[in-house]
Every structure is written in C-alpha cells, then in structure tokens.
C-alpha cells in the first residue's frame, strides 16, 4: 500500500526550475495544502550558515505561514529543499531533522521526489516514499 499525494505538474516544474537556478546553494521552502494534496509552495530564504550543504528555512517565513494558517489560510504540511550536487534522496542529515508526519520534497539531479517522515522508515531510517499524482 503506497501513499499518494496530489501536486500539479506545474508546481513540480516550478520547483525543478528554482533548484536548477541555484547550483551553489540549497533552496528551501514550505509545502502548503491539506490531506493528500500539496496546493501551493512558499519559497523561503535558506538562512543556514553553510547553504551549499545545509538548509534552514527563514524563521520569519515560517512564523508568517503559521500565523496565516491560524487565520484560516492553507496548512503547512511539510517543506522542500534541494541538493545542488546530490540526488533527490534524503541525506543522513535530513534524517536527523525529520519530524514524523511531515512531507519532505527533495530536489536533486534534475528530479523531484516526495517522502513522508516516519518514526521508523525504509529510507534513511526515517522516511517512506510517497507517489506524486498529477
Ligand atoms: Zn537534504
């Protein structure tokens, strides 16, 4: 039984273009939507000290998105980031940051892949693959 999440092809293409346009630093942002669907993305600045190898979503963007969600806006269901020199697979470092239930969309090598963080997962010990339906 595999999980499926709806996301439009144009949204995936937008993320792939943004990742390709940033070869020297990881891009990152939030995934907004509801159960079983990603409706929108919210790009954020990567404020990590070493953005070539790490990502940290700008806390100001995170705070504003939480505030908007509380006011009836779209829910934050996960986030995305890129691996400029790697693949669209969670890294061991990603696994250390995984919080159960969140969607992780990974970009790398010209591909996009979606995962859900779990307590015990088949991928990097903390993730399960999720199919993207368009
Ligand atoms: Zn990563």
TrEMBL record:
Residues annotated as domain MPN: 5-134
Gene Ontology molecular function terms on file: metalloexopeptidase activity; zinc ion binding
Claim: Metal-binding is one of the keywords in the record: yes
Residue ranges crossing the lipid bilayer per the database entry: none
InterPro entries from the UniProt entry: JAB_dom_prok, MPN, VirAsm_ModProt
A Gene Ontology biological process term: proteolysis
Keywords from the named record: Hydrolase, Metal-binding, Metalloprotease, Protease, Zinc
PROSITE patterns: MPN (PS50249)
Pfam families: Prok-JAB
Full protein name: MPN domain-containing protein
Organism (species): Sphingomonas sanxanigenens DSM 19645 = NX02
Taxonomic lineage: Bacteria, Pseudomonadati, Pseudomonadota, Alphaproteobacteria, Sphingomonadales
